[in-house]
Design goal:
With 377 residues, this protein is of the alpha+beta class. It is built from nine helices and nine strands. Helix 4 packs parallel to helix 8 (321-345).
Length: 377
C-alpha cells in the first residue's frame, strides 16, 4: 500500500454559517438569558484558524449592564457543524459536553473553562450550542502544525518544552483520579462488557460503520483484526477518559496548562487510552515533519518519557502500550477516512484506486502491526 509523502489535510470545519449575522443573533439570545435591563452587545467576534478539529469555535466579547455597572466578558461559543456540511462525527451532544465540563470543574482540580450556558434549541444558530468563559493563553497550533517551526512551542528552550510535557502528563494523572462514578452517565445506553469493549464498540466499530458505509478499507480491517487478536488481558480499573487528549486541545501560560478543551470524545475507559492518544498524535506529527525535511521535535513527548512520568505520578504500571498505540491510530484512521470521503464529496479531491490512500498515516499503522514503529522512539 502506498501513502502520500505529504502533510495530512487540515481537519477543519466546512461551515455554511453566516458569521456576519451571528453577533446580532447572540445579542438577542443573551438578552433572553440576562435580566431585562442588561442590553447585551457582542463585539470582536472571530473564528480561530490555527486550531480546531470539528466543532466550530467562535470567540467574542460581550458586555451588558448588571447592577448599575457595565460588565465585560470574553466568551467562547462551541457550535456543532450543520449536517449539510458533512461533519466529522455522527453525533455532537452539547448537553453532555456541558455536563462533563461542569462535573470536571466540580470533582477535580483540572482546569476547565467555566461553562456558562447550554442551549438545546437548534433554531437559534442552526444547532444546539454552549457558551463558556474565555481562557487567555497559547495553544500549540494545528494549522500549520507546531512541529513545523516558527511558533512559541517549537522555539521554546528544551527546559520549557520539558516543563510543558510534564505538566501535561500531570493533567492526565489528575483527571484520571476523578471519582469515576460521577461520570457514569457517559456510558448510558452502552452495551455490556468491559469499559474498553464498550468504548471500542462505539468509537471504533460503530464509527467505522457510519463513516465507511459501502466503502471498505483493507488496512483498517486488518488493524481491527490485529486489535481483536491481541486484546489486553488486564484492562485495569476504568477512569474518566478525556478522549481527545492532546496538547493541541490545551491552553497554556508560561508552559503550564490553564484550560483543557474539547470534551466531545469523553468516555470511561483504561488510563492508557488517553496516554496513547496524546503520545501518538505528537509522534505522528513528528513523522510528518521529518517527511517534509523538517527537524521536528525528537526529544519532546517521547513515549518512554511520558509513560515514566505518568507512572511516577500515579503509581500505575502502564500496560499494552503497543496495543493502545494502534488503538489510537485506528480511531484516527477512521477519522482520516471520513475527512477523505468528505473532501471527495465536496469536489476537493477524487476517489483513489486504493481507498487506503485516504489514510494518511497508513504506513505508520503497518509498522505498528509489524512491531517496528516504536523502535527508537
Amino acid at each position: 500500500m502506498s501513502t502520500p509523502e505529504e502533510a495530512p489535510p487540515t481537519v477543519g470545519v466546512k461551515s455554511s454559517r453566516d458569521l456576519a449575522a451571528l453577533p446580532d443573533t447572540l445579542e438577542r439570545w443573551l438578552a433572553s438569558r440576562l435580566p431585562d435591563s442588561a442590553n447585551p452587545r457582542v463585539t470582536e467576534l472571530s473564528v480561530p484558524s490555527g486550531t480546531g478539529m470539528s466543532t466550530e469555535t467562535v470567540v467574542f466579547e460581550a458586555e451588558w449592564h448588571e447592577e448599575g455597572a457595565t460588565r465585560r466578558e470574553g466568551l467562547v461559543a462551541r457550535i456543532p457543524p450543520d449536517p449539510a456540511d458533512m461533519p466529522i462525527f455522527p453525533v455532537y451532544d452539547i448537553p453532555k459536553q456541558f455536563r462533563v465540563m461542569s462535573m470536571v470543574r466540580e470533582l477535580t482540580d483540572v482546569p476547565v473553562p467555566e461553562p456558562l450556558w447550554s442551549e438545546e434549541d437548534p433554531g437559534i444558530v442552526g444547532q444546539p450550542f454552549m457558551i463558556m468563559r474565555r481562557v487567555v493563553g497559547e495553544v500549540p497550533p494545528d494549522n500549520p502544525l507546531y512541529l513545523f517551526g516558527d511558533n512559541w512551542l517549537f522555539d521554546a528552550s528544551e527546559g520549557e518544552q520539558r516543563k510543558l510535557q510534564e505538566r501535561t502528563v500531570d493533567i492526565l494523572a489528575r483527571l484520571h483520579a476523578a471519582p469515576v462514578q460521577g461520570f457514569a452517565f457517559l456510558q448510558d445506553g452502552a452495551d455490556g462488557g468491559t469499559a474498553l469493549r464498550r468504548l471500542y464498540q462505539k468509537e471504533v466499530l460503530d464509527y467505522y460503520a457510519w463513516v465507511a458505509k459501502d466503502v471498505r478499507s483493507p488496512l483498517l480491517e486488518r488493524s481491527l483484526k490485529w486489535l481483536e487478536e491481541r486484546w489486553p488481558v488486564d484492562e485495569g480499573e476504568p477512569v474518566l477518559s478525556w478522549g481527545d487528549a492532546r496538547i493541541g486541545n490545551m491552553i497554556y501560560r508560561d508552559f503550564e496548562p490553564v484550560a483543557v478543551l474539547d470534551w466531545e470524545m469523553a468516555s470511561v475507559g483504561p488510563r492508557e487510552v488517553d496516554l496513547a492518544w496524546c503520545q501518538f498524535f505528537h509522534e505522528f506529527f513528528h513523522g510528518v515533519a521529518l517527511k517534509l525535511g523538517m527537524p521536528g521535535m525528537p526529544s519532546f513527548m517521547r513515549r518512554d518519557d511520558v509513560v515514566a512520568s505518568y507512572e511516577k505520578l500515579t503509581g500505575h504500571t502502564c500496560r499494552d502500550m503497543d496495543w493502545y498505540g494502534l488503538f489510537a491510530a485506528t480511531r484516527f484512521a477512521i477519522n482520516a477516512l471520513r475527512v477523505g470521503l468528505r473532501s471527495i464529496h465536496f469536489g476537493q479531491s477524487t476517489m483513489p484506486d486504493d481507498v487506503d490512500q485516504l489514510l494518511f498515516h497508513g504506513a505508520d499503522m503497518e509498522a505498528m502491526m509489524a512491531g517496528t514503529y516504536w523502535e527508537g522512539r
